[in-house]
Amino acid sequence: MERADYDRYAQAFNDRDYDTVFDFYAPGASIRFFGVDLGTREAFKRFYGFLHAHVIETLTIERFASSADLVALEGIIRVEGVKDLDAAALAAQGLDQFAPIAKGQVQEMRQYIHYRVADGKFTSVGCAIVG
Domain residues for 51? Predict the structure, then answer.
């Protein structure tokens, strides 16, 4: 996958265009991170629709490497609360592993993201947060 292709994916994510984002994944792709399984379009849209109703989340790519079967990047995930997201609301969605965030609060996290690629589509994604 070329950087320009990934930039289109990242822009669609930052624009909250979930259908375009999901179209970058191969059928049956493993989209699991932080205890959440987003392997269907509906699950993907439900999770991000809920999350992004409470926060503005953006990805800034700092380092990028790719080949025909791998994309690896390091970047900053910035999350800004636009509506209070408390522990009870997270628990009601089965997202106890996520931290609450208040309106106006900003969190920035360094994230490493690793994608396996086949025929130009992501077949799996893994994420790790540092710090």
Answer: 3-130
Please list the pLDDT of the chain residue by residue as tens digits (131 residues). 899 999 999 999 989 999 999 999 999 999 998 889 999 999 999 999 999 999 999 999 999 999 999 999 999 999 999 999 999 999 999 999 999 999 999 999 999 999 999 999 999 999 999 87
Nearest partner of 79 among 45, 112, 42, 54, judged by Cα: 54
CATH code, domain with 114: 3.10.450.50
Here the tokens at position 14 are: 């930052």
Q: Where are the beta strands (DSSP E) in the chain?
A: 25-33, 36-37, 55-66, 70-81, 106-118, 121-130
The count of domains in the chain is: 1
Name the pTM for this structure.
Answer: 0.88
Under 8 Å CB-to-CB from 109, ≥6 apart: which residues? Answer: 76, 77, 79, 129, 130, 131
33 forms beta bridges with 36
